[in-house]
Design goal:
Number of domains: 1
Number of helices: 4
Bound molecules: calcium ion
Helix content: 25-40%
CATH architecture: Roll
CATH topology: Mannose-Binding Protein A, Chain A
Shape: elongated
Strand content: 15-25%
Largest sheet: 4 strands, antiparallel
């Protein structure tokens, strides 16, 4: 009997873990959890805050990597739900003009979703990338390089919890 109850306990624990791969207010997609901020921050502060928030869950969080159309679509849907017209993602060309890297993994971007005329490095001062909705100017949740110092809402990502993580 005891064994049965132990098994049941373990099973319900596992079930709870499976259904709580992401904390409240985070959205689960594939192997990641995404969080759309309510506050506006510079790019640097956005990245810092993602890291700080991630530590609250004992995980490593960063600004979001958007490296395929499906992820872009998922984030677009989230932005539509909260009526957002702009969010920093983890892409920048701070080190070498025109070469864009993701902050979370250091990789150069391969999937790109630039809006019209972007990236244009306007005034020679735009090195941080945001997803933008601005229909009159042709931005349909497409990307723009912006000045890194302009406070904007932002999207964090962190790895979703799984059973392997917890048992391993
Ligand atoms: Ca731009």
């Amino acid at each position: 009997m005891t064994t049965v109850w132990t098994k049941l306990l373990v099973l319900s624990f596992v079930a709870a873990v499976v259904f709580c791969a992401c904390p409240n207010n985070w959205s689960h997609y594939e192997d990641k959890c995404f969080f759309l901020s309510r506050d506006n921050e510079t790019f640097a502060d956005s990245l810092k805050l993602c890291e700080v928030i991630g530590r609250q869950y004992g995980r490593s969080a960063s600004l979001a990597t958007v490296d395929d159309a499906k992820t872009q679509e998922f984030l677009t849907d989230l932005m539509i739900k909260i009526n957002s017209d702009g969010m920093y993602i983890g892409l920048n060309d701070l080190v070498e003009e025109g070469t864009f890297h993701w902050v979370a993994n250091g990789r150069q971007a391969t999937y790109l979703n630039w809006g019209p005329g972007q990236p244009n490095n306007r005034w020679g001062n735009e090195n941080c990338v945001a997803i933008r909705f601005d229909a009159p100017n042709g931005f349909n949740y497409s990307w723009t390089d912006d000045p890194c110092t302009v406070p904007t809402t932002y999207i964090c990502e962190m790895v979703a919890a799984n059973i392997g993580n917890l048992l391993g």
